[in-house]
Amino acid sequence: MTTHSSTHFHGWRDGDAHVSMGNAMLAHVCHHSPTGFEWGYGGSGPADLALSILSAVIDEPKTVKIHRGFCGAKAWALHQPFKWEVIAGLGREWTLSVQQVKDWIALYEKEHAKQAKAA
Questions:
Q1: How far out from the chain centre does Cα 7 lie?
Q2: Separation between Cα atoms, residue 110 and residue 10, nearest integer Å
Q3: What is the torsion angle, in degrees rounded to the nearest 10, for the CA atoms of residue 67, residue 110, residue 46 and residue 14?
Q4: Which pLDDT tens digit goes with each residue over 30-78?
Q5: Rounded distance, CA 27 to CA 55, Å?
Q6: CA-CA distance, 73 to 103, in Å (whole number)?
Q7: DSSP H helical segments within 1-119, as ranges?
């Protein structure tokens, strides 16, 4: 699936946690949290939200076996850092653009490429 850079993810709570992508609800790529998405801390719900957002943004084959189905290798490799650096800091209601997610991915990869060269 390819997402347009102007598409936004929007999360809100009304007792339950909800996340949309554009005009539809974000598909739950489920590995850590069978009960759904969460954010604002570093648990299993935020991990699945990170994995789901990255899976929606990164156009790659879904080859990594997870608890319920498959995800892409890059989404899998990045979802824990994305959880800690982005998802854990989100408030009660939030919006992220696809471009913001792509920018985070590019910055993360650039920083880790520098670290790999230095090692």
A1: 14
A2: 27
A3: -130
A4: 999 989 999 999 999 999 999 999 999 999 999 999 998 999 999 999 9
A5: 9
A6: 19
A7: 44-57, 73-85, 98-118
